[in-house]
Every structure is written in structure tokens, then in C-alpha cells.
Write a structure and sequence with these properties.
Two copies of one chain form a homodimer. By secondary structure, chain A is of the alpha/beta class. Chain A has helices spanning 17-26, 48-64, 75-88, 97-107, 119-124, 126-134, 148-153, 160-175, 192-199, 208-222, 246-254; strands spanning 7-11, 32-36, 70-72, 93-95, 112-117, 139-144, 180-183, 204-207, 235-239, 262-263. Chain A is 45% helix and 16% strand. The first copy, chain A, has a six-stranded parallel sheet, with helices on both faces. A four-stranded parallel sheet of chain A has the order 6-5-7-8, with helices on both faces. In chain A, helix 1 packs across helix 10 and helix 4 (97-107) crosses helix 6 (126-134).
């Protein structure tokens, strides 16, 4: 692995920037190329075939930018396309599911794990299957929580409505005795302060952004791939459509860590 | 206009089915071809250029099916592409904005009109500009209400959370004295029962589905285009991606009025 090359991270939109932010926080000297496929966001309501095609185009774009490793910072793309990407790409590919699953298995004592995410992620059964592959005795309480992304996008991060929605969504998970909760969506880390305050004494919260960033660090160590520079680098931000209303989200996710967004094309004619 | 031909209706997804349902209710003998561009839904967060390209592809698909009139049952596509579609298409094109605007102007007595819709629709200023074109003295209170679509999709149509969200969203509109509220999003007609119950005595509710369907009826009358058959027809449902989780929404929007969804391709290679 060529240590001086950047890391590539892609997502269907800007949600994966929570992963980029965590990678940047944990590995500040690594350059990052972030691709958000904002022209086709979201992937969560698209078919397996469509998502696989989009993910391949996204990964090829990053590959053309000369990255040393690709992070699939999108749950749907990880669920539907990770294996295919691992076959096709010449650099290592890390999905966002496996790190969260491993961390949840280390954290649980009751053996009951809750999972929340979009309809697409929960319906794909990707987390459920990955947990079961590691440990068939784990009891899983999975629930789609589709209101949380728009609540984050509304910036209602500490709002009574958000509290009520979380209470309704988490009730069956808590009442069935889960002691660990996987936040299986890249938007959810922004709800961590509220979740920690309201539920932190009852349930261990596993967010995929920080677990995924930790795995990137391990992978770089293992391949002698850490950038030897000690300068703090920035995030190059590539989007497939004008960010429009997402500008504000990008700002909230990344602050001044990123370059001005570049408009790029990933679809093959 | 060839009266025996079907009507064409398109939307970025399945939300426009509320328009198809109203057209079918008001004009039960008209055959309908409905195209939902579910592979690229939603349009509301895409750029003007992207939406214009998608809308042209959608309208051309309907044109190839031999329709006598095209309804753009998508606020974003109407805002960004209606003029272009009117130029390009050989059949009349009706957008979803003008009918709602006219009905709101007829309804208001205070001269203050509220508008709620997605970020895309409100940000496009399409309703605001159309209102101002008709009457420059109208005071407009426009507000993006992005949580309402996922609340409808969750089927929380009579839920305390929905009541709280509506209260927060509508407070500034009511307190500024609007007596008429335009529901500028095709999902919102499903919230009409709750809105009527909670706010019906304070504000006139204008939904774009029924106003748009009424305009289709007028246009057919004017062009001698009403289907002479007296048999109740069905809705032919064409989607650009597998409906997946939207199956349930289609069922709730349409009941048994529609055929089994067909997968179609509208993108030109």
C-alpha cells in the first residue's frame, strides 16, 4: 500500500461525512477524497441492482483519483455491494457494517442487541445476518426508524419531537432487554449527545462512524499504509450534483475541514 | 385531442399517486398511465438542471405511450421544468402549481396565504412567484416542512408526534394571520383529515391533488377531449425501479385502482 496516497470514502449523499469526520479526527494526517453521489441520493429506497451499479461507479471514480483504500460509508451500498466491490477493486474496501457489528458483540452482556436504521438498511437484513454469522445465539431487535434522518436534517437535535420519536422507536428495543444499540445510519451520530443523555445509562450506543474510522486505522497499520506526514490534511469533497440545501448540512457535519465542493460525474455514458 | 387516449401523469416517485387518485375519482372513465421515476426519487434535493433532464425523459416516455395530456404531479418538476415541457411536448401539459395557486387566491379573504412543502419546493419560490404574478398584494408566509413526508410514509397520520410537528410548523403561519394554507406537496393530502380536524376552523386548506384534478377536467372539456366511454377504467402503473418498501404506500394511496407495477426505463443511453 502506497502510504502517501489519500483514502477514498463514498456515500449516496452527505450523511457519510460523519464517517469522514471521524476518520479525519482519528487519522488527521491522512488525505481524504470524499465522494457523495448527491445526484442519486438516497440509495436506501432503490433496488439491489440499482445500488450495486451506483456503488461500482462510485468506487471506480475514487479508484481513478488514486486512493489507497476505499471506505463505503453508506449502509445500503455496504449491504448490497460490498462483496462485489471487494472482487472488483484493486485496493482494500471497508464497509460500514462489519465494524459496528464487531463493536456491538464486544459490548453486549445480555446478548440482546438493538439495531436502528432506514427501511433500506433494516430491510436488507445486512446487520442481522452479520451478527448471526459471528454469533448465532445473539437476540436481535431490529427496527426501521425513518424519521431520524429528516430530524437530523431539520437540526432538531435536542427537540421535544425528537425525544418523543426516539421514545416511541426505542420502547420495544428497551422493553425486550437489549443492552446495546447499533446506530446503523450515518446521520445518527449527530443524535449521540441526546441519545447518551436520555438512554446512556440503560444501553450502550455503538455508532458506525467511529467504529469504521477505527477499522481504517487498523487496516493502515496492518498494511504499513499510514501517511508518514505529520501535517493535518483536508478533505477533498466531490459531489455528483450541486449541494443546494445540503450546504448547511455539510457545514454542520464538517465545519472547515473540507475543501469547496467540486461537481463530478461518475455515471458512465 | 383524441378523446379515447389515456391521460399521462408523472412524478419523481409514488407521491403523485394522490393526484392520480383524485383524477380517477373525478374522471373515472379516463384511462391513466402513471409514471413514477422511483429510480431517481426524490427530485426535491436535485439541481434545476438534473430535474429538467429527468422531467423531459419522463414526459417523453409518457408521450411514447400515446397520451392525450400530461400532468406533472411533482412540485419540483413543475417548478423547474414546466415551461420547457410545454415547449417540447405536442400535447397539453398541466403542472401541479397553478391550480393550487388559483384556488388559494379564490379562497383567501385576509389576503395572507401560507404555503408548506419540501425544502426544494419552497426554496424554488415557484408558488410564491406564481401567487405574486396573479396578485402583487398577497402576503405570503412560506415554510419548508420536511418532516411531513416521512410522517406520511410512517403512516403516523393521527399520531401525537404528527400533531406536535404540525403545531410547530403552522404556528408562524397562523400567528401571522394567514386564512388559507396551500399544501404544496403531493404527500400532504393524506394529512387532510388531521389538518381539517385540528385547523379546519381557522384556515382554508387547499390541496394540490384535487385542484389539479379539477383543472384536468376543465382542460378536457375545453378540448372536447373527454373519454366517451362510461366504463370505469384503471390506472396503469409504470415505475423506473422496483417499488420495494413503496408497495405499502402504493396500496395506501391507490387501493385496488391500479394495475400491478411495470418496471420501465426512461433514461436515454
Amino acid at each position: 500500500m502506497k502510504a502517501h496516497l489519500p483514502l477514498g470514502i463514498f456515500d449516496s449523499g452527505v450523511g457519510g461525512l460523519t464517517v469522514a469526520r471521524e476518520v479525519h479526527r482519528q487519522l488527521p494526517c491522512e488525505s481524504i477524497v470524499y465522494l457523495g453521489d448527491t445526484a442519486r441520493v438516497p440509495y436506501g429506497n432503490k433496488s439491489r441492482e440499482a445500488v450495486r451499479r451506483y456503488a461500482l461507479e462510485d468506487a471506480r471514480f475514487l479508484s481513478e483519483q488514486g486512493v489507497k483504500l476505499i471506505v463505503v460509508a453508506c449502509n445500503t451500498a455496504t449491504a448490497f455491494a460490498l462483496e462485489r466491490l471487494e472482487e472488483e477493486m484493486e485496493v482494500p474496501v471497508i464497509g460500514v457494517i462489519e465494524p459496528g457489528v464487531r463493536a456491538a458483540l464486544e459490548a453486549t452482556q445480555s446478548g440482546k442487541i438493538g439495531i436502528i436504521g432506514t427501511y433500506g438498511t433494516i430491510g436488507s437484513r445486512a446487520y442481522q445476518d452479520a451478527l448471526a454469522r459471528h454469533n448465532g445465539d445473539i437476540e436481535i431487535i431490529a427496527r426501521p426508524t425513518p424519521l431520524l434522518v429528516p430530524l437530523v436534517e431539520e437540526n432538531w437535535l435536542d427537540h421535544d419531537v425528537t425525544r418523543s420519536v426516539l421514545a416511541e422507536y426505542l420502547e420495544p428495543i428497551l422493553s425486550q432487554g437489549a443492552d446495546t444499540l447499533v446506530l446503523a445510519c450515518t446521520h445518527y451520530p449527530l443524535l449521540l449527545p441526546l441519545l447518551e443523555r436520555e438512554y446512556g445509562d440503560r444501553i450502550r450506543l455503538i455508532d458506525s462512524a467511529s467504529t469504521c474510522a477505527a477499522m481504517v486505522g487498523e487496516m493502515l497499520e496492518a498494511h504499513d499504509g499510514k501517511n508518514p506526514s505529520s501535517a493535518t490534511s483536508r478533505i477533498r469533497l466531490c459531489l455528483t450534483d450541486d449541494p443546494g440545501q445540503s450546504r448547511d448540512l455539510i457545514e454542520r457535519f464538517l465545519g472547515d475541514r473540507a475543501s469547496k465542493p467540486e461537481l463530478v460525474k461518475v455515471e458512465k455514458d
